[in-house]
Amino acid sequence: MRKGLAAACVALTAVTVLAQETPITIRAGRLVDGTGAIRENARITLDGSQIARVDRLRGAVTYDLSDATVMPGLIDTHVHLTAHFDADGRNHSDPDETPEQAILFAAENAYRTLMAGFTTVQSLGSPMDRYLRDAIGRGSLPGPRVLTSLGAVNARTGEPDEIRAYVRRLAESGADVVKIFASASIREGGAQVMSDEQLRAVCGEANRIGLRTVAHAYGTESLTATIEAGCGGIEHGTRYDDAVLDLMAERGTYLDPHIGLLWANYAEHKDAFLGRGNYTEEGFALMEDARVTGIQTFRRTLRHGGVKVVYGTDAVAGAHGRNAEEFIYRVRDGGQDPMDAIISATSRAAESLGLADRIGTIGPGHEADLVAVAGNPINDITAVRDVVFVMKGGVVYKNEAP
Ligand SMILES: [Zn+2]
Question: What is the 247 CA–ligand 1 centroid distance (Å)?
Answer without folding.
Answer: 23
